[in-house]
Specification:
This protein has two domains: 14-234, 3-Layer(aba) Sandwich (Rossmann fold); 246-363, OB fold (Dihydrolipoamide Acetyltransferase, E2P), CATH 2.40.50. Helices cover 24% and strands 34% of the residues. The protein has helices spanning 3-6, 52-60, 102-112, 117-130, 146-158, 176-193, 204-210, 228-233, 238-243, and strands at 14-23, 26-36, 41-45, 67-72, 75-76, 87-90, 164-168, 196-201, 213-218, 221-226, 248-258, 261-266, 271-275, 285-290, 295-298, 306-315, 319-326, 331-337, 351-356, 362-363. It is globular, with a radius of gyration of 25 Å. Bound molecules: adenosine-5'-triphosphate and magnesium ion. This is Spermidine/putrescine import ATP-binding protein PotA.
């Protein structure tokens, strides 16, 4: 790789401040403020219709905010046309030119910018290498597989060395295996080029795998911004906890508070430590979230913080899920890794105790 060709110019930090977007009388984005750092792999994650594409289109300049500012490296770019912004977009459907070769597709943007032939050839060569398509430049683009076409689309978007690359669900048309390898590929491209990537997906696993930071969105608002670990292990509210992975919600009462720690009493009477993101006071009723893989099933014992009856055992190869009816009638899921082959040792209708790993309970914001 020739560093000077494929490395972005410095910068690429995006500020979105107080962004609101109305389509007629429908509000698609409601007061979003986000600061995306230079050279970051940043993901907008949320269910269909929550406003991800709309936010991306406002960074690209295809849509204008009804209110608020879009900044690039601290400069307001709201009045710039899409082609005046050092930003490129990769779409889900690739949008390649079917009548052009791989090389012509990759060089297209540079040609439009009026770059000399020799420079285009040189950048295309670097790009083919970057996306592992050396020797394929002369092929008609239609002869490539889906994954290869997606890499051409990436190379084409990277060729003019944008400061920011916007990617709107670029992997959703690929099969699972290809998607997994393209996730690694994208992460590598982002690290090697140092370009700020803003990636859109509704797939939580994809977001956790690739991102430096994630913004979880719901109905036009950003609910939480953080590292994959923050989002998964320290969800601030029920929507985030529920959207990212499987979760148990338990009602509890705060017994004591000290620093960022609390002791909470579960419906079983057991008291456990819990962390919390917002103010809680002793006596307060709270919801506590515990991930299924942070709990263990065993025979009932003094170490059990919860007790119940196994309603269902689901064997998933790598691990086993136990769906347990607790004494208070709610259901709790435990996910245990199948470290050994053979039976898990429990059957449906067994009475079991549930113990927890240390420091796994998190109190949610109301
Ligand atoms: N041009 C438009 N005119 C009217 N409504 C629009 C327009 N573009 C988007 N919307 C609406 O704004 C909301 C957000 O749309 P957006 O495309 O940003 O969602 P999304 O999060 O990208 O969803 P998906 O995951 O399905 O792509 C939706 O309710 C959509 O119908
Ligand atoms: Mg979308």
């Amino acid at each position: 790789m020739t560093e000077t060709r494929t490395t972005a110019a410095h910068g690429g930090a995006i500020g979105m401040h107080g962004i609101k977007k109305w389509f007629g009388n429908f509000q698609a984005v409601d007061d979003v403020t986000l600061d995306i750092r230079s050279n970051e792999f940043f993901t907008l994650l949320g269910p269909s219709g929550c406003g991800k594409t709309t936010l991306l289109r406002m960074i690209a300049g295809f849509e204008l905010p009804t209110e608020g500012q879009v900044l690039l490296d601290g400069v307001d770019i709201s009045s710039l046309l899409p082609n005046q912004r050092p930003v490129n977009t990769v779409f889900q459907n690739y949008a390649l030119f079917p009548h052009l070769t791989v090389a012509e597709n990759i060089g297209f943007g540079l040609k439009m910018l009026g770059k000399p032939r020799s420079e285009i050839d040189s950048v295309v060569k670097d790009m083919l290498k970057l996306v592992h398509l050396e020797g394929r430049g002369g092929n008609p683009v239609t002869q490539l597989s889906g994954g290869q076409q997606q890499r051409v689309a990436l190379a084409r978007a990277l060729a003019p060395r944008p400061k920011v690359l916007l990617l709107d669900e670029p992997l959703s048309a690929l099969d699972l295996k290809l998607r997994k390898s393209m996730q690694m590929e994208l992460k590598r491209l982002q690290t090697e080029t140092g370009i700020t990537f803003v990636f859109v997906t509704h797939d939580q696993e994809e977001a956790l795998t690739m991102s430096d930071r994630i913004a979880v969105m719901s109905t036009g608002t950003v609910r939480q911004v953080g590292s994959p670990w923050d989002i998964y292990d320290r969800p601030a509210e029920r929507f985030v906890a529920d959207f990212i992975g499987e979760t148990n919600f338990l009602e509890a009462e705060v017994v004591a508070v000290s620093g960022d720690r609390a002791r909470v009493r579960l419906s079983s009477g057991a008291e456990i430590p819990a962390t919390f993101p917002a103010d809680v006071t002793p006596g307060g009723k709270v919801t506590v979230v515990i991930r299924p893989e942070h709990a263990q099933v065993g025979t009932p014992s003094p170490a059990s913080v919860l007790r119940g009856i196994i309603r269902e055992i689901v064997y998933l190869g790598t691990d086993t899920h136990f769906h347990i009816r607790l004494e208070d009638g709610t259901t709790f899921t435990v996910r245990q890794q199948n470290a050994r082959s053979g039976s898990c040792g429990f059957s449906k209708d067994d009475a079991v105790g549930i113990s927890l790993s240390d420091d796994v309970a998190q109190i949610l914001r109301d």
